[in-house]
User: Fold this.
Amino acid sequence: MPLTDYGSALVTGASSGIGAATVRALASRGLVVHAAARRRDRLERLATETGCIVHVIDVRDTKLIYQSFGDLTIDVIVNNAGSGRGFETLISANPDEIDETINTNFVGAVHVLRAVCAGMVARQRGHIVNVGSVGGLYPLSSSIYGATKGAIHLLSQNLRIELKGTGVRVTEICPGRVKTEFVNAAFKDPVAREAFVSGFEIMMPDDIADAILYALDTPWHVNVSLIELVCTEQYIGSSAIAPVARP
Assistant:
């Protein structure tokens, strides 16, 4: 069903970047938006701006997920919380970084879905949006991060099969490079950090939020299964950057 038929949404990782942009976009369309993240100050500023309902939560806290979300009536879930810790290489990552990335990017996302989706199935309506990455679709030199996003990809594909006949739709959004705080956690080396966000015009969080709204706003009989978005001059599997014609 189109976005106009939905009344409520839950967005994780909502305090900045793609999550905050998605909260703003959904609130502008009249939905009651539950915004979940770890940073209370940023969530409260977002609430002042959009009227969203604040949930201060780390999605690695499984018990708190069920306490916070288990009784909510949610039509749209945007599973966006993520971490880039240990992005550079597996052998340079410490054990805490490995646990943080796996538990945030995948395990927490699964528990959020478990807490919310039973209600969607019972009501025969709802839309799951999992924010993955092109790193979950193609090989890249980040074993830990890529594995978590690859898991999100298969989770999304398999959920479509599980939820057949329930009226609940599933969309996976797979962005390439986006200008968010992800890069600060992903790269310890400031030179590598700068290289990740420079060299071509990078996507912004609003670009991804627009794609999410597109998927949500399609007619009820249409399921946008996967959207892959990359910067115009970003090429998967190559570091080459094509010249850009300037007016």
